[in-house]
Amino acid sequence: MKLIGSLASPYVRKVRIVLAEKKLDYAFELENVWVPETRIAEANPLGKVPCLVMEDGSTLVDSRVIVEYLDTLTPVCKLLPAGGNGRERADIKNWEALADGILDAGVLMRLERTQRPPEQQSEAWIARQHDKVTRGLAALDARLGESVYCAGKSYTLADVAVGCALGWLSFRFPEIDWRGAHPALARLFDKLSERPSFKDTVPQ
């Protein structure tokens, strides 16, 4: 398998962490989708990363699709429940959706600041996205509470997704003091940051 992505993308990091946790072999091809010479559209018509190219040449796009597929390849470090436990599975995927939603809003904030001329930037738009980040973090912190992991006592895809969101916020928006405002998330992030899969994929 080949993963196309960047070292800064939190969505790519999520896939890289799952690949590491599942002990799956793959090649990593760096791609900057923001430069004119990018060729990402040859693999993903949406022009986005991550993109997973499988052995037969077919591709999977979107981090949520990719990680769900990867979890089926080996029983090592099962990140989603097997069998018919739909409620438990939906809960984990809901954690992931909330974490990715925070990232989506954060990315839109960053793009507004970095990809548009200052005179065209909308402070109202940035504030709207910032509110989504703030509300999302508060919801995650409240849901986590005193639990060891997001979805109970076991490490799951929920923790991977939340950890990637928090790591990216620290990387791109150090002025957002999510640690001070959300001690439960800070405790979880510190715990996750000790895992080799997180240590080896710190955004840069």
From TrEMBL:
GO terms for biological process: glutathione metabolic process; L-phenylalanine catabolic process. It comes from the Bacteria. Keywords: Transferase. Pfam families: GST_C_2, GST_N_2. SUPFAM superfamilies: GST C-terminal domain-like (SSF47616), Thioredoxin-like (SSF52833). CDD domains: GST_C_6 (cd03205), GST_N_3 (cd03049). GO terms for molecular function: glutathione transferase activity; maleylacetoacetate isomerase activity. Residues 85-204 form the GST C-terminal domain. It is an enzyme of class 2 (transferase). Residues 1-78 form the GST N-terminal domain. This is Glutathione S-transferase. It comes from Janthinobacterium psychrotolerans.
